[in-house]
Specification:
With 60 residues, the chain is mostly helical. The protein has a two-stranded antiparallel ribbon with strand order 1-2. The longest helix is centred in the N-terminal third of the chain and has 16 residues. The relative contact order is 0.19. Helices cover 37% and strands 7% of the residues. This is Integrase catalytic domain-containing protein. It comes from Trichonephila clavipes (Golden silk orbweaver).
C-alpha cells in the first residue's frame, strides 16, 4: 500500500467514524436523526459514505 492509498483509506475511516450516531436528537421514536461527531465539526450531519469493500478489491 502506497502513501496515497493509505491517505485515502484513513479519510474513509475518518468519515465513517464521524458519521456514527452518539445519541438521539429527540425523544420522539419516529425521529431517526441522531447526534454524530460530524455535528461538532460541521454543524450538520455528514451524509457521504465510502464505497463498501468487496472481495474483488485489492489491498496490496
Amino acid at each position: 500500500m502506497n502513501f496515497e492509498e493509505l491517505t485515502t483509506l484513513m479519510a474513509q475511516i475518518e468519515a465513517v467514524l464521524n458519521s456514527r450516531p452518539l445519541s438521539p436528537l429527540s425523544s420522539d421514536p419516529n425521529d431517526l436523526n441522531s447526534l454524530t461527531p460530524g455535528h461538532f465539526l460541521t454543524n450538520c450531519a455528514i451524509s457521504s459514505f465510502p464505497e463498501p469493500y468487496t472481495a474483488s478489491d485489492s489491498l496490496s
